[in-house]
Design goal:
- The protein has helices spanning 20-32, 47-61, 75-84, 121-129, 163-173, 214-223; strands at 40-43, 69-72, 97-102, 106-107, 113-114, 131-139, 154-158, 180-184, 200-206, 227-230, 232-233, 239-243, 249-252.
- It is of the alpha/beta class and 253 residues long.
- The strands form 3 sheets. It has a 6-stranded mixed β-sheet with strand order 2-1-3-6-12-13. Strands 8-9-7-10 form a 4-stranded antiparallel β-sheet.
- The protein is globular, with a radius of gyration of 18 Å.
- Bound molecules: ribulose-5-phosphate.
- Ribulose-5-phosphate binds at residues 44-49, 102-105, 115-121, 124.
- Ribulose-5-phosphate is lined by residues 44-49, 102-105, 115-121, 124.
- Pfam families: Rib_5-P_isom_A (PF06026).
- GO terms for molecular function: ribose-5-phosphate isomerase activity.
- It catalyses: aldehydo-D-ribose 5-phosphate = D-ribulose 5-phosphate.
Length: 253
């Protein structure tokens, strides 16, 4: 097991490589140092963000941080934070968030992100968009040359009403994109996956990554009736904390 502050690990022999889980934890622990007492903190969703929530709770418990209020980005995170003893609130009561800390599925060279493979993209985008600082915590495997280029999906949250019609509209939007495909996300029982907002998710796949002006792609998607939000987080991250296999950290501003 790692010591409580793994980012302070002494030099590791070259032969020792961190696992992906250890890298996530190293990035999460470093980002927790960016939180100050009295802050309203957006709490991300996913396995990397879970390490951050544990560390935040630990720092609160040992008295290093006081007066923290968390705004959870999902029901899963809400449960975790309550269990960890972090006082929670909502964007309605705290519309300005001092700092949000969350993982990502992909980070491009301009720090644009793909998020939401865990299905929480809508709440994440609202809360992280309301944040003065949005710190993304990732391991080096999340860095990509181009969004969608890793062969994994770019998710889009849509209303369930006439979902197949919305899927067709999305397919039409990208009909000239070579290697594009899209499908409804399903759960283990092959039923439509439901988000915390009771919506559905369309998974978009771009064989060569999302091409062209990302803001234009975003606008086109958001103009489709039935589309709630998509998982491309453009120009939102203020910092990226990236942990590498050798245990080192890169902090990008
Ligand atoms: C959830 C997200 C997560 O931040 C993203 O999927 C990364 O997850 P993990 O930290 O488990 O790799 O966007 O909607």
């Amino acid at each position: 097991p790692l010591p409580s502050s793994p980012h302070l690990l002494p030099h590791k022999p070259d032969s020792i490589q961190l696992t992906q889980e250890e890298m996530k934890r190293v990035a999460a622990y470093r980002a927790a140092d960016m939180v100050g007492s009295g802050m309203v903190v957006g709490l991300g969703t996913g396995s990397t963000a879970a390490h951050f929530i544990d560390r935040l709770a630990e720092l609160m418990l040992n008295g290093s941080l006081t007066g923290i209020i968390g705004i959870p980005t999902s029901l899963q995170t809400e449960k975790h934070a309550i269990k960890a003893g972090i006082p929670l609130s909502t964007l309605d009561s705290h519309p300005i968030v001092d700092i949000s800390i969350d993982g990502a599925d992909e980070v491009d060279p301009k720090y644009n992100l793909v998020k939401g493979r865990g299905g929480s993209l809508f709440r994440e985008k609202m809360i992280e968009g309301a944040s003065r600082k949005f710190v993304v915590i990732v391991d080096e495997t999340k860095m990509v040359g181009c969004l969608g280029g890793s062969g994994l999906s770019v998710p889009v949250e849509i209303v369930p009403f006439s979902w197949n019609y919305t899927l067709l509209k999305i397919q039409k939007l990208f009909e000239n994109e070579i290697g594009f495909s899209a499908r409804l996300r399903v759960d283990q029982d092959n039923k439509p996956f439901k988000t915390d907002n009771e919506n559905y998710i369309i998974e978009m796949f771009f064989e060569k990554g999302v091409s062209g002006d990302l803001n234009e792609v975003s606008d086109k998607l958001l103009r489709l009736t039935g589309v709630i939000e998509h998982g491309m987080f453009l120009n939102m991250a203020t910092n990226v904390v990236m942990a590498k296999k050798d245990g080192s950290l890169v902090i990008l501003n």
